[in-house]
Description:
Helix content is 33%, strand content 16%. The protein is of the alpha/beta class. Strands 11-8-7-6-5-4-3-12 form an eight-stranded parallel β-sheet. Strands 1-2 form a two-stranded antiparallel sheet. The protein has a two-stranded antiparallel sheet with strand order 9-10.
Amino acid sequence: MTGGLSNLSILRRNWPEYADPGTTHVVDVCRVQVGGDRPVVIAGPCAVESYEQTLSAARAVKAAGGQLLRGGAFKPRTSPYSFQGLGREGLEILARVRAETGLGVVTEVQDPRMVGDVAGTADMLQIGSRSMQNFPLLVEAGRTGIPVLLKRGFSATLEEWLCAAEYVAREGNRDIVLCERGIRRDCSWSHARSEFDLEVIDPLRRATPLPVIGDPSHATGEWTRVEDVSRAALEAGVHGLLIEVLAPGTERSELRCDAHQGVPEDVLARITEFARGAGVEA
Length: 282
Ligand code: PEP
Ligand code: MN
């Protein structure tokens, strides 16, 4: 880390208790430890589309050994004409499903004015790739004191990503989990929009005590490749995975968001089993 960035508090040497490169700031989300010795699996549908679909996905996540439910009520869509999520109704569904299953809820907030409302339901606030440099949003999320899942902007450098995390940390909230979700690649030879940046994991872990997880679902955009990339991410040293799941009983063709990405239940179970056995090296 160079130049003016050396004053970032999230750099390991600036948090004296984490000066030793082997230590990680463990983030507790509903008694699930992100950044501990064992990788965690956070999973769920891309979007909350109905109560039945979300409950079915949550039950599948739980049965497969996933520890937290992730589902979007507010979806960041490239086209303004695409489904934008159920909004407040989606938050209510997530709250009901949490009560039903006991799984902690991770969900995205896009608008700084909505942070209070989303924080009323979420156990962890997701800041999406497209919002990584929405600075007022980062500040508001930091002020809630609720754990924050900060996705990497798909063109962001490691330094820009750490600076974004610093906006949250500066508000007194260190409970930040970084998420590598794939960076923009040359699409001319492949239909994949992104590629998982395996090479950022080690430098990131050396630079900061914050836990780092991987999202192979958005990196690959295709459920059949999610398992391989999950294994690779774990080998590279992530503290966990964010996986999109196809809710049992749901028709893929009828989904309104990221229909190709959700892994079936059995694939999620394999990924979770592998993750559980993987351990995280200091
Ligand atoms: C998502 O998590 O559903 C999502 C849209 O991800 P990203 O912000 O990484 O594109
Ligand atoms: Mn998605």
